[in-house]
């Protein structure tokens, strides 16, 4: 590019006239020698334009365009440098303009080459990329270089042709793709080209005949129809009045009219009591209706959806009233049915009931009488005729029906029911038995009519002779006989019905009544016979029969049934123990404790070494048995599993709680012999002595345990024992001795720090906690104690730092995140607490987020938003007990006490070992519960003995609560909760 001189020193362009572009003309001054120069002539301008057009290759087209520009304002006029208007009007294209055009054209071409090369570089294979040279300086000759991504690259000659071919192929492919896309997605103007071309063939008459487009859409027509059909919502009261206008009567009005008539029966006195009852009845119905519809105003109504649907379900026509139009339609249909098929009994019955519904009882009787004539063998038609007539006519109709159907048991029974006195009923039944002696139902009716046992026995004896396969008749006869004769009857029944297990069960119950159940196992013989006859019921059916025996006070028979049939159909490969435990739990849930006890007894005979079965059986006796039965089960358990310290300690605890301290000591002595140096038994013995005031004996036992069984737990319990007694120095000395042996036991470090805190030595406590978290970095309670000590000392930054280290050592822990949120909340940094809560909910797994959601609901959420937040939490964490307690507290605050109680009980069922849940529930019952309910909750809590919970552990494990029972701890925790 040439170097240009200063603008003011440059010569004027050719044919330049100053001010000509803005319309100025030449003028003369006194300093001028003559008039100013005129502009170029019109011929000169045309000549310059022709030269320019020739240089650009347009020929004479420029002149033609100049003429057309006056009429055609096309976009090309703005692209022609010689066709300028306004400010640039009258300009002349000179050499500099030509040079500028050339420079712009070169720049455009250069930019196009760069874009093509850049696209080429990205599209070339990796092997071809590697053939480019490094940036060069000075620049190589043109044609061999290109500029890409901030660097100059040189192309080797051997791939120059490949690049050229690649560019040409790519451009051809892009052009083909572009044409294919335009063909598949044509523009709107291209889609209508043929239609536009076809418009040229339309004549003027056809153009004039085109209709107006105003109403083709139907808009005006739809608007007119909408105005004609416009309606408004009618109040419910109008709809109710319209629906009741066609009814024949209403129950309320009839009841009120009856009350009015009864009130004025004597004509002289008014019965105000009955009038008041009628008024109250009407008022009650109105109140019930109002409970479904809250408001009715104008064209809107507020309706309770549940109540409205319930009222619709109950809005059927009252008895004796029906819509006339509906009755007429149904009557026509039924008449068509009975005319088409006059022997169709259900059609006659339906037609008669329709007339009865319409209140035309006479027509109904006539119809059903015709039906009896048309269907004399259909007992349903005769029974309907009997029902529609009074007692006198019904007897006549029943006699006619029996004449036509003397083998119908239902007609004989109905005829018997029409009689008033017992003697007539017996006579009818005996006539029926003469005709149908093999009917079991008739014999049962005959036996039920007898007042004397002997007469009933005679009838049953005759019935069993005629119907030997009826198990019910045999069992009824055996119940009426003496025990000796009952055995004979059951033996006959067993021979007549060898596949009936009910007869065998009755025989076993008879042996139980006679006191010979243990001598003769009838059920064992029953299983053999039934299996031989291929009539053995399923195991579940036998359990059902055993539960029936338990309900009917036959526990021995119940146990025998379970003993002989519980293993039926189960192989050794099956999970028999789990199956039987599930059967026992199901029986316990149904309240059948004798059956469950028998199931456990049988299972323990098969699996005598199963500790799980022994614990389940002991739990059954503890909850639903007697103290002696529990001791018997536990004695059998420790004899069968002498190495199970759990069973030994359970037996010793039951003896201790019963007040038999010496027997508890003996049990622990026997346990020592079977399990020498067992730390659980040592600690149980220490607790027994300590709880009963034998401090020296407990201390000696602990010393012996530290020598015989020197475990970390024994040392920890020794230090805790001394700390409970107030011997802080001795407890601290024991802790230090224990830490020399057990550096990785977190509870020792925790106890050491707590002892220093009790001694008001926070610096030593801090050192203990700091050393402890280094030795046991996975202990969350130890981290929490460390953090809370720093917060108590006012070192909030230090507490935050410790919590950060704790979360790194124990990642994704809900307790540590919850403590971080609480520290910020207690410090007043609510925004930071909310931020940490969001991070915690992202970091902690969903199944462990219950405490976090509870904290968020109660401390980081406004009261109106707590319920939606709780709903969101329940969707995320389904059955976390902490979250369930939070929901219960929300309902408690809203005074929805029933729902609150239900949610508290859900939380207890979910995790009964959580002490905080029991405390919250007890606190709720102290405000809104009964005394009986509180006592029930306390007793259940004592039996469960919860061990966990944030507040529960802090209070229950404090040295001051060492001698307190579960009930006392429960009340203290309930008072502590906020």
From TrEMBL:
One GO term of the biological process aspect: spliceosomal tri-snRNP complex assembly
Chain spans, region Disordered: 21-44, 57-86
Subcellular location: Nucleus
Coiled coil ranges: 171-198
Record Pfam families: PRP1_N, TPR_14, TPR_19, TPR_8
Comp. bias regions, Basic and acidic residues: 63-80
InterPro entries, alphabetized: HAT, PRP1_N, Syf1-like, TPR-like_helical_dom_sf, TPR_rpt
Keywords assigned by UniProt, alphabetized: Coiled coil, mRNA processing, mRNA splicing, Nucleus, Repeat
Domain of life of the source: Eukaryota
PRP1 splicing factor N-terminal domain segment(s): 12-119, 155-219
Cellular component terms (Gene Ontology): catalytic step 2 spliceosome; U4/U6 x U5 tri-snRNP complex
Subunit structure as annotated in this protein's UniProt entry: Associated with the spliceosome.
Protein name: PRP1 splicing factor N-terminal domain-containing protein
Native species: Neoarthrinium moseri
């Amino acid at each position: 590019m040439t170097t240009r001189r200063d603008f003011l020193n440059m010569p004027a362009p050719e044919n330049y006239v100053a001010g000509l572009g803005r319309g100025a003309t030449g003028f003369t001054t006194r300093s001028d020698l003559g008039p100013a120069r005129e502009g170029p002539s019109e011929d000169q301008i045309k000549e310059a334009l022709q030269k320019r057009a020739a240089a650009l290759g347009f020929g004479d087209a420029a002149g033609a365009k100049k003429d057309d520009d006056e009429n055609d304002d096309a976009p090309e006029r703005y692209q022609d440098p010689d066709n300028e208007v306004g400010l640039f009007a009258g300009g002349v294209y000179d050499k500099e303009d030509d040079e500028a055009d050339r420079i712009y054209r070169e720049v455009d071409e250069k930019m196009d080459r760069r874009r093509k090369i850049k696209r080429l570089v990205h599209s070339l294979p990796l092997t071809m990329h590697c053939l480019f040279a490094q940036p060069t300086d000075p620049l190589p000759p043109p044609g061999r270089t290109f500029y890409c991504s901030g660097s100059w690259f040189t192309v080797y000659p051997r791939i120059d042709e490949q690049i050229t071919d690649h560019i040409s192929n790519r451009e051809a492919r892009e052009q083909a793709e572009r044409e294919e896309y335009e063909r598949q997605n044509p523009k709107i103007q291209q889609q209508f080209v043929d239609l536009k071309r076809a418009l040229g063939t339309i004549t003027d008459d056809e153009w004039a005949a085109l209709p107006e487009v105003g109403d083709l859409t139907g808009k005006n027509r739809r608007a007119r129809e909408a105005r004609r059909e416009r309606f408004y919502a009618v109040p419910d009261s109008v709809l109710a009045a319209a629906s009741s206008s066609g009814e024949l009567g209403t129950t309320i009005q009839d009841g009120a009219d009856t009350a009015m008539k009864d009130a004025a029966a004597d004509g002289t006195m008014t019965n105000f009591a009955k009038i008041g009852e009628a008024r109250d009845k009407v008022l009650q119905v109105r109140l019930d209706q109002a409970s479904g519809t809250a408001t009715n105003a104008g064209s809107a109504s507020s309706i309770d959806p549940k109540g409205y649907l319930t009222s619709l379900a109950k809005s059927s026509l009252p008895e004796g009233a029906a819509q006339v139009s509906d009755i007429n339609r149904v009557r026509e249909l039924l008449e068509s049915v009975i005319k088409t098929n006059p022997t169709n009994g259900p059609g006659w019955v339906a037609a008669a009931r329709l007339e009865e519904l319409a209140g035309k009882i006479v027509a109904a009787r006539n119809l059903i009488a015709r039906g009896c004539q048309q269907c004399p063998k259909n007992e349903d038609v005769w029974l309907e005729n009997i029902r529609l007539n009074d007692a006198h006519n019904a007897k006549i109709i029943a006699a006619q029906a029996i004449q036509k159907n003397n083998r119908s048991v239902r007609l004989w029974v109905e005829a018997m029911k029409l009689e008033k006195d017992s003697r007539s009923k017996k006579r009818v039944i005996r006539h029926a038995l003469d005709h149908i002696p093999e009917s079991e139902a008739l014999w049962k009716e005959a036996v039920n009519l007898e007042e004397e046992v002997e007469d009933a026995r005679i009838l049953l004896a005759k019935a069993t002779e005629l119907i030997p396969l009826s198990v019910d008749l045999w069992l009824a006869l055996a119940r009426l006989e003496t025990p000796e004769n009952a055995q004979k009857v059951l033996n006959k029944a067993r021979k007549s019905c060898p596949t009936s297990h009910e007869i065998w069960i009755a025989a076993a119950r008879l042996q139980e009544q006679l006191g010979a159940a243990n001598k003769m196992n009838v059920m064992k013989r029953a299983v053999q016979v039934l299996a031989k006859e291929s009539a053995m019921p399923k195991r579940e059916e036998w359990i059902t029969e055993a539960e029936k025996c338990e309900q009917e006070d036959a526990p021995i028979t119940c146990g025998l049934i379970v003993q002989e049939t519980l293993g039926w159909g189960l192989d050794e490969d099956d999970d028999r123990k789990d199956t039987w435990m599930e059967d026992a739990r199901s029986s316990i849930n149904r309240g059948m404790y004798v059956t469950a006890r028998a199931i456990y007894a049988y299972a323990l005979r098969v699996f005598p070494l199963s500790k799980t079965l022994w614990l389940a059986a002991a739990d059954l006796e503890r909850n639903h048995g007697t103290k002696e039965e529990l001791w018997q089960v536990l004695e059998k358990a420790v004899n069968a599993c002498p190495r199970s310290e759990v069973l030994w300690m359970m037996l010793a605890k039951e003896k201790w709680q019963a007040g038999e301290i010496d027997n508890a000591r003996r049990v622990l002595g026997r346990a020592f012999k079977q399990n020498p140096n067992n730390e659980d038994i040592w600690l149980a013995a220490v607790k027994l002595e300590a709880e009963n005031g034998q401090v020296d004996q407990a201390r000696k036992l602990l010393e012996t345990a530290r020598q015989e069984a020197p475990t970390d737990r024994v040392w920890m319990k020794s230090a805790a024992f001394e700390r409970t007694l107030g011997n802080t120095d001795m407890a601290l000395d024991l802790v230090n001795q224990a830490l020399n042996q057990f550096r990785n036991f977190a509870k020792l470090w925790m106890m050491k720090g707590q002892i220093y805190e009790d001694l008001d030595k926070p610096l030593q406590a801090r050192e203990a906690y700091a050393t402890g978290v280094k030795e046991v970095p996975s202990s969350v309670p130890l981290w929490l104690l460390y953090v809370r000590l720093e917060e108590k000392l006012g070192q909030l930054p230090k507490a935050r730092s410790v919590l950060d280290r704790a979360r790194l050592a124990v990642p994704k822990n809900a307790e540590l995140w919850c403590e971080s949120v609480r520290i910020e909340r207690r410090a007043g940094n609510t925004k930071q607490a909310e931020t940490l809560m969001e991070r915690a909910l992202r970091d902690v797994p969903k199944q462990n987020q219950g405490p976090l959601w509870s904290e968020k609901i109660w401390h980081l959420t406004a009261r109106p938003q707590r319920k939606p937040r709780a709903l969101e939490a329940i969707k995320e964490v389904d059955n976390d007990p902490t979250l369930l307690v939070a929901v219960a507290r929300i309902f408690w605050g809203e005074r929805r006490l029933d729902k609150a109680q239900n949610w508290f009980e859900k939380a207890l069922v979910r995790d009964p070992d959580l002490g905080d849940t029991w405390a919250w529930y007890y606190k709720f019952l102290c405000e809104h519960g009964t005394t009986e309910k509180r006592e029930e909750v306390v007793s259940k809590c004592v039996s469960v003995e919860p061990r966990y919970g944030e507040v529960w552990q802090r209070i229950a494990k404090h040295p001051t609560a060492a001698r307190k029972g579960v009930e006392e701890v429960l009340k203290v925790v309930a008072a502590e909760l906020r």
